[in-house]
Amino acid sequence: MSLDKKIELLAPAGNFEKLEIAIHYGADAVYVGGKNFSLRNFSGNFSEKELEEAIVFAHRHNVKIYVTCNIYPRNHDILPLKDFLARVAKMDPDAIIVADPGVFMLAKAEAPHIDIHLSTQANTTNIGSVRFWKQIGAKRINLARELSLSEIREISESCDIEIEAFVHGAMCISYSGRCLLSSFMTMRDSNRGMCSHPCRWNYAVVEQSRKDQYYPIAEDSRGTYIFNSKDLCMIHHIPEMISSGIDSLKIEGRMKGIHYLASAVKIYREALDTFYAAPDAYQVKPWWKEELAKIGFREFCTGFYFGDPSQAVPFYDADQTINYQLFAGKILGKINKTRALVEIRNKVFKGAPVQLLPKKGPPREDVIVEIVSAHGEKLDFAQPGSLVNIDFTGECHANELVRKKSDQ
């Protein structure tokens, strides 16, 4: 295992606010999408003007930025896609992420000076496929999620190409994300960015002559989830992932909120920095996993990385929300050491205990001492969507998140 070059932490950015948050909490690179041609058409995404501004912003902060263009297009998509790639080429992102061979060739033709990364959607599972993609010009490959770490190590040792793999986030129940459920059930093509996520819906068995009687396959307080896999979490296995020859650890979640993004990026940043500071002494700090558990309700697993498919079995436990933290607001700017301008996302009250999520270290317990409106009026509470000045007991900083317990 070579420690000469640090592994990259790659974060999702579904819009400009998420881009700022990912960079603030320590991402080395971000992946973003335009309004079309990526697999997350409902994540907000960037207009072409915003995309150009995002690339400038990321580069100003010495962060790489990759533009996703990983749909499987139909014939009528090709010309608009060609024009889009030509315009993206002039913006100079660090790479374009593609999955389809036709899009790959378009990217080579329209953006010859831009690196091409191959998406996990391409289902690259073996050394021969990796060598093929490298031969025609791929710079990096996000390998299929079905591979174990030992298989990834074999590929890394046999092929001189950058390897990317997921380290955290939701896992699609289908083969490398190429699913047809959404197309069948809602006429929304998941392979062209419009997935309605039917794998997360409730299902039951119905006997033909008893149409109003539902027989659950497995039951909890929410319903039945026969396709609903656990979430990937590799925080305990950073050394194994690095020793497998992976060059970039990717966090899933362009459609997730900034609370999820901030916590995930922050924890994996600290984990990587801890590892490189003392590789032989790497240990997971208890608050890391506690922090990750506060931003979702599914159980965690290690996916297929250790050759154990049972890790990804459907999720049925509804008790993960016990420690759930509600995103209360975002600090837009610091007025003085303890006063900040805050954009409120969920109602907060004067005197309420809150947590601030700093750039480094565990969440800091604090209290809302004072709430003052834009007109200077002292308030007992602040409503979602409002901009207020808040006095805390301790020091605060721009881009830090404010949160409260979900029952407050």
- What is the third-level CATH name, the topology of the largest domain? TIM Barrel
Q: What's the mean pLDDT score? A: 87
Strand adjacency order, main sheet: 1-2-3-4-5-6-7-11
Estimated share of beta-strand residues:
15-25%
CATH superfamily of the largest domain: Aldolase class I
Helix % is 25-40%
Our Rg estimate from Cα atoms comes to: 22 Å
Domain count: 2
Q: Count every beta strand, where a strand is a DSSP E run of 2 or more residues.
A: 21
The top-level CATH class of the largest domain is Alpha Beta
CATH architecture of the largest domain: Alpha-Beta Barrel
Counting helices, strands and paired strands, the structural category is: alpha/beta
Weakly predicted, low-confidence segments: 219-224, 318-322
Assign an overall shape.
Answer: globular
What do these coordinates show?
With 408 residues, this protein is an alpha/beta fold. Helices cover 26% and strands 23% of the residues. It has 2 domains: 252 residues, TIM Barrel (Alpha-Beta Barrel), CATH 3.20.20; 81 residues, Beta Barrel (Elongation Factor Tu (Ef-tu), domain 3), CATH 2.40.30.10. Strands 1-2-3-4-5-6-7-11 form an 8-stranded parallel β-barrel, surrounded by 5 helices. About 3% of the residues have low confidence.
Task: Walk me through the topology.
Blueprint (H helix, E strand, L loop, with lengths): L7 E5 L3 H9 L4 E5 L14 H13 L3 E5 L9 H14 L3 E4 L2 H10 L4 E4 L8 H9 L4 E3 L6 H10 L3 E8 L11 H6 L18 E2 L7 E2 L15 E3 L4 H6 L4 E4 L6 H20 L8 H8 L6 E2 L23 E10 L4 E6 L3 E2 L3 E5 L6 E9 L5 E2 L1 E2 L4 E6 L8 E5 L3
Parallel strand pairs: 1-2, 1-11, 2-3, 3-4, 4-5, 5-6, 6-7, 7-11, 10-12
Antiparallel strand pairs: 7-10, 8-9, 13-14, 13-21, 14-20, 15-19, 16-17, 16-21, 17-18, 17-20
Helix pairs in contact: 1-9, 3-4, 9-10
